[in-house]
């Protein structure tokens, strides 16, 4: 390796959080949930400590997003009234802003205007719309848009494949990747990166190696994103030698590649090698921000894998001292560390301070509550997630079923899942799981109906 780390200044974003977005539209379900499952608006505040105020760093752009969207729509109306063609680039910029801030209501306003101007068939606009719905946790709507598209390009396929992976459905992501190749659509480096991530998630080493061979044939293996994804895939599939080979062949491994290698060491029980690589990177002349981000995030994950609570708490204290406790990736790592170390109260303390929470984080926190025996808290958070319009993945629904203490709670989850169309969109048939849940509460009639349905 010529240089250990190439400059990656863009990785540090001090404005990771935004003020609270406007409340989402009410869920379409009219199902009456048990008390434990009522949304947050109908309950008193949680009993764990309030969030630390310095978890949030609002930016002016984020505060003013709704105002800017409204002004942009007014400009578009004026252009339309004067007979000028609609500006698709402006729509794409606005949708990107809404995606980044998870501002669902503003995005809906933009979609309405796109529909009025008959721009849904524009492939660039359609791709941005699909990405917006996926980022906001509305996978069903994203898939519906994809199915309606008369023309699909590589970006269209990659967006939906990534959406399935990000929502915790890696098998479906890989299935769609195979479908993409069957219709002769050409995957790019980003598509392959998501495919490798999905292989990592399901532990499919042989499939990952097959994709790696495809990349070599297409001379794409030297791409920075691909290299990092390969290291991550081999590490998570317990093939540390392959991960190290990819890393050593990089002339200038990026910060992302170094992080993937450190995580691979951690996952494979090589903590000393992980810390040695961290020390090499810390002495490589990176900017202070990049060093802090890499060092803290990787060390937190190392503590998480080793369940080393004391060391993790020391790192957390250092984060607060240096004012670096507002980066979304660092806080995400802290939540996982406390969750894995059995400190769900602290994990929830941090989670409550986040103003932007993606579906994946919601799922991990709720499942952590179930694993920690916090039954009622898990069910309440699940109801909050549903009321925010986010779609849980199959693993979360199975986990929440375990938290049910009576048949009414189980029926509430089952009914809500059916009402929102979640069961149709998932890669796993959950009817057997719901049948087992009903049998657990001696509701044999309900269980038999589900047994007979598949």
Automatic annotation (TrEMBL):
GO terms for biological process: RNA modification. It holds the Pfam family PPR. One of its GO terms (molecular function) is RNA binding. Residues 28-39 have a biased composition (Low complexity). Keywords: Repeat. Residues 1-61 are annotated as: Disordered. The keyword Disulfide bond does not apply. InterPro entries: PPR_At4g14850-like_plant, PPR_rpt, TPR-like_helical_dom_sf. PPR repeats lie at residues 122-152, 153-187, 188-222, 223-257, 358-392. It comes from the Eukaryota. Residues 17-27 have a biased composition (Pro residues). The keyword Repeat applies. Transmembrane segments: none annotated. NCBIfam families: PPR. This is Pentacotripeptide-repeat region of PRORP domain-containing protein.
């Amino acid at each position: 390796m010529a240089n250990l780390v190439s400059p990656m200044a863009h990785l540090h974003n001090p404005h990771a959080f935004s003020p609270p977005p406007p409340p989402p539209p009410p869920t379409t379900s009219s199902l009456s949930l048990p008390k434990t499952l009522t949304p947050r608006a109908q309950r008193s505040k949680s009993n764990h400590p309030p969030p630390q105020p310095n978890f949030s760093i609002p930016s002016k752009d984020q505060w003013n997003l709704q105002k800017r969207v409204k002004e942009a729509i007014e400009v578009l109306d004026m252009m339309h009234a004067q007979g000028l063609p609609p500006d698709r680039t402006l729509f794409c910029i606005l949708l990107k802003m809404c995606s980044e801030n998870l501002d669902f209501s503003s995005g809906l306003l933009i979609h309405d205007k796109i529909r009025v101007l008959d721009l849904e068939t524009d492939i660039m606009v359609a791709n941005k719309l699909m990405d917006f719905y996926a980022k906001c946790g509305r996978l069903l709507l994203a898939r519906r848009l994809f199915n309606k598209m008369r023309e699909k390009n590589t970006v269209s396929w990659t967006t939906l494949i990534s959406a399935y992976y990000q929502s915790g459905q890696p098998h479906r992501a890989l299935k769609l990747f195979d479908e993409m190749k069957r219709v002769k659509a050409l995957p790019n480096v980003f598509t392959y990166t998501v495919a490798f991530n999905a292989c990592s998630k399901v532990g499919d080493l042989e499939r990952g190696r097959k994709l790696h061979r495809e990349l070599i044939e297409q001379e794409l293996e030297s791409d920075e994103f691909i290299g990092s994804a390969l290291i991550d895939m081999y590490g998570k599939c317990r093939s540390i030698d392959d991960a190290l080979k990819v890393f050593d062949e990089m002339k200038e491994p990026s910060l992302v590649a170094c992080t993937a290698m450190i995580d691979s060491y951690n996952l494979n029980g090589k903590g000393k090698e992980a810390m040695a690589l961290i020390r090499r990177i810390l002495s490589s002349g990176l900017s202070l921000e990049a060093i802090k981000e890499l060092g803290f995030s990787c060390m937190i994950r190392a503590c998480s894998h080793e369940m080393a609570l004391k060391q993790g708490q020391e790192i957390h204290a250092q984060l607060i001292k240096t004012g670096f406790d507002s980066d979304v990736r660092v806080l995400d790592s802290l939540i996982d560390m406390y969750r894995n170390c059995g400190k769900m109260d602290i994990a929830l303390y941090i989670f409550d301070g986040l103003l932007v929470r993606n579906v994946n984080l919601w799922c991990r926190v709720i499942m952590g509550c179930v694993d920690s025996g916090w039954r009622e808290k898990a069910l309440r958070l699940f109801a909050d997630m549903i009321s925010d319009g986010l779609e849980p993945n199959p693993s979360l629904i199975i986990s929440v079923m375990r938290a049910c203490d009576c048949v009414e709670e189980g029926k509430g989850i089952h009914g809500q899942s059916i009402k929102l169309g979640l069961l149709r969109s998932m890669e796993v048939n959950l009817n057997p799981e719901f049948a087992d849940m009903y049998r657990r509460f001696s509701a044999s009639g309900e269980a038999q109906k589900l047994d007979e349905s598949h």
